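S.,

Sequence below, as promised.
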Amino acid sequence: MSFNQFTIEAMQKRQSVRTFDTENITDAHLNIINDYRINDENLVGPFGSKGRIEFIPVTNNVSDKGIKLGTYGFIKNPQGYLVGIAENSKYPLVEFAYTFQKLVILLTQMSIGTCWMGGTFNRNSFEKEIQLGEGEFIPCITPIGYPNQKQRVFDKALRYVVKADNKKSWDKLFFDSSFDVPLNKENAGRLETPIEMVRLGPSASNKQPWRLLLSSDRKVCHFYIEHTPNYSSKLGYDMQLLDMGIAMGQFELACKEVEIEGSWVLENPNIHLPNEHIEYIVSWNSNR
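The prediction came back faster than expected:
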């Protein structure tokens, strides 16, 4: 199975699921997941970094016990976990998240629930189940399973507590030619929908660190990160780099659906940045 033409719809409806049904994932769905994650083409980012995605069933070491989401509750009845494995450096982390988010959207299309987890799980439990190579670590996991519709009230209440549905407006995230001019939707041209999919994407603690700058000719969209100072420093890696990979995955999938051709390039425009926390990451160059 590959992505169908409704990836934008999947990105719009996808929400983090923490309460799952006890129904096992069907063999047909597991086969699709396994076929997808062992295909090297699905695991390589646009600049050549390659991560791994392992499927771990619920075991004695890895269960629904002790997988606490900070102060916000627990994962309940997961039917397994997808475990990300990557090198702990800038672009490998970005590229890994880009590939992982694409799998998350494919799962959404199959009505399988997911919940990105980057810091609120016991890595040691998963490391007992996976052979890590030199330089590898686990940046994130997601539990998977079919959502328990009767328990969705709890998940909705949790979304309210963590303000998961409070997305920043366009004028806070997207800019027109320079960071001095906010980008209006009506001026985004063909890239309006891909940019909106970035806005709707998941991010750690809903910080939404992505900042996009659209060139005056509307052919290039530059992606920046606005780092939250000291965020995730205790974890030993920059979790917000994963958010940038998620943004790239959302943007590219939307471009494909609305038939905008382009490619990822490293072409820093070296423009004035509004503060020291903003860093250039990547650019999307449209082919017209």
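Residues 90-109 form the longest helix (20 residues).

Coffee later?
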